[in-house]
Amino acid sequence: MAEARTFTEQDPIRVFLLDDHEVVRRGITDLLDAESDISVVGDADSVEHALVRGPALRPHVAVLDVRLPDGDGITVCRELRSQMPELACLMLTSFDDDDALLDAIMAGASGYVLKQIKGSDLVSAVRTVASGQSMLDPATTARLMRSLRADPAEASAVAPELASLSPRERDILALIGDGLTNREIGKKLYLSEKTVKNHISRLLAKLGVQRRVQAAVLASHLDQPDPGNRTTG
């Protein structure tokens, strides 16, 4: 539906930048501002700052650090895109982390690049996502998305395991399915992040899975009530 946009010096790509290191923000700003069709319209050094400043600046692209002292860029991606659905988010991280990549895909990110990327490649990535294309490596994305497609037979085999979860673990599993981070789950349920981590370790063991991404797939089965138990209203 949305057609590829063309940006010019008169109508540049508006970029918002989130990173907790000032030297990284300055370096990326200098790099991008040197391009005639790109303009860095603002930056932030924390999740809180980004959620306040980002929407006000109406950027086309947000370059977001994945790991931050007060949270993560994936949460910021989800929140900003809920207010600005057309926003393209490019996740920037020092870690090659499958869980973070899949979380980024689920949050609607358009790209995911490592901080070791060459400057010219980062400029190219910003232009790519601004034009509406994805910067996610197709092979990696396909591999990760396969892990999301639970075989229905497999899922029903695990369904009895869901019954073994405590009410608290079921609440946490549902929130994992909604894509919330440990920190967000803790805030919602008034638990410390460490307590959430402990609950998640236990529920993964009970479900017989190793990754929260697999748990997120199983969480969808929590929403399917037992037909004999249905209530109207």
Sum this structure up briefly.
51% of the residues lie in helices and 14% in strands.
Q: Helix and strand layout, with pairings?
A:
Elements: E1 13-18, H1 22-33, E2 38-44, H2 47-57, E3 61-65, E4 67-68, E5 71-72, H3 73-83, E6 88-93, H4 98-106, E7 111-114, H5 119-130, H6 138-148, H7 152-162, H8 167-177, H9 182-189, H10 193-207, H11 212-219
Parallel strand pairs: 1-2, 1-3, 3-6, 6-7
Antiparallel strand pairs: 4-5
Protein architecture, described:
With 233 residues, the chain is of the alpha/beta class. It has two domains: 13-145, 3-Layer(aba) Sandwich (Rossmann fold), CATH 3.40.50.2300; 150-223, Orthogonal Bundle (Arc Repressor Mutant, subunit A), CATH 1.10.10. The protein has eleven helices and seven strands. The protein has helices spanning 22-33, 47-57, 73-83, 98-106, 119-130, 138-148, 152-162, 167-177, 182-189, 193-207, 212-219, and strands spanning 13-18, 38-44, 61-65, 67-68, 71-72, 88-93, 111-114. A five-stranded parallel sheet has the order 2-1-3-6-7, with helices on both faces. Strands 4-5 form a two-stranded antiparallel sheet. A hairpin with a 2-residue loop joins strand 4 and strand 5 (71-72). The protein starts with 12 loop residues before the first strand and ends in a 14-residue tail after the last helix. 30% of the residues are buried.
Could you give me the name of the CATH homologous superfamily of the largest domain?
Response regulator
Task: Please count the helical segments.
Answer: 11
Physical arrangement of strands within the biggest beta sheet? 2-1-3-6-7
Strand-and-helix sequence, N→C? EHEHEEEHEHEHHHHHHH
The count of DSSP E runs of length 2 or more, i.e. the number of strands, is 7
Radius of gyration: 20 Å
Examine the coordinates and then state which fold CATH places here, giving the name of the CATH topology of the largest domain.
Answer: Rossmann fold
Q: Into which percent range does the helicity of residues fall?
A: 40-55%
**CATH architecture of the largest domain, please?**
3-Layer(aba) Sandwich
In terms of per-residue confidence, which ranges show pLDDT below 50 for 5 or more consecutive residues?
150-158, 224-233
Please give the largest β-sheet: 5 strands, parallel
Q: State the secondary-structure class.
A: alpha/beta
Q: What is the CATH class of the largest domain?
A: Alpha Beta
Distance between the termini: 37 Å
Count the domains.
2
Approximate strand percentage: 5-15%
Global geometry:
elongated
